[in-house]
Amino acid sequence: MKWPHNTDKSGLNAADEQQLRPRDIIFTIPNFISLLRLISIPLIAYMIYTDRKWAALIILALSALSDWLDGFLARRMHQISKIGQLLDPLADRLLIFCSVLVFGMAGLLPWWLLIAIGLRDLVMLIEVLVIAQFGYGPLPVHFAGKTGTALLMIAIPALIVADLGQGYIFASLHLAAVACSIWGVVLYWVAGLIYLKQGYDILHIQRVREQS
């Protein structure tokens, strides 16, 4: 099947593709929103730790809204930036790690979940630093990684709500949130292994190029 001139299989023409390509810009509205989300993370963790759960839920909801808003504005205003592609997943990972840390300190989640999440992100950080030495940016996000992150993002507010009351409903919600966290971590690691394979392939190709 042939595609129209100057278009790819996604239906974008050359001009649209150029606008959606990340640029070396820093001071943009989407990046400012991502920065605010990063700043809100210790505040959310503090609210959870000090048992101000309703305040934590409100800030968490605003943070989730900003997660959608910065991506939407970046595409709409043609302000997709390289630093934005780093800030957005960084904010998600820090929110998950800090929240799980606080839940672990409060006894609402097992500590092995925190260790599993922290270890996976540490491995990914090392991989990003290694492939960056060869001029490669962050690897494209895999569906398993998106799903794992989504499950963990669902589990965080569910755990907060489950801790607001007593009884069968709240206990069931707590169990569901813990199960959601476990599946999120499993998919988190599945995606991590996929990223490691992609990183290995990149380094292998680079080595072949250097030898040829």
Tags for this model:
212 residues, mainly alpha, 2 domains, disordered N terminus, CDP-alcohol_PTase-I, membrane, CDP-diacylglycerol-glycerol-3-phosphate 3-phosphatidyltransferase activity, transmembrane
Summarize the structure.
The chain is mostly helical and 212 residues long. The protein has helices at 14-20, 29-49, 53-76, 82-105, 111-132, 143-162, 168-211.
How would you portray this structure in words?
There is one protein chain. The chain has 212 residues and is mostly helical. It has two domains: 24-108; 137-211. It has helices at residues 14-20, 29-49, 53-76, 82-105, 111-132, 143-162, 168-211. Helix 2 packs parallel to helix 4. Mean pLDDT is 80; it is low at 1-20.
The strand count comes to: 0
What Rg do the Cα atoms give?
A: 20 Å
Rounded to the nearest angstrom, the distance between the terminal CA atoms is 34 Å
Structural class: mainly alpha
User: How would you state the average pLDDT, rounded?
Assistant: 80
Q: What letter string, H or E per element, gives the SSE order? A: HHHHHHH
Main sheet properties: none
Oligomer: single chain
Number of domains: 2
Query: Which strand-content bin applies to the residues?
Result: under 5%
Low-confidence stretches: 1-20
Bulk shape: globular
Please work out how many helical segments DSSP would assign.
Answer: 7
How helical, in percent, are the residues? over 70%
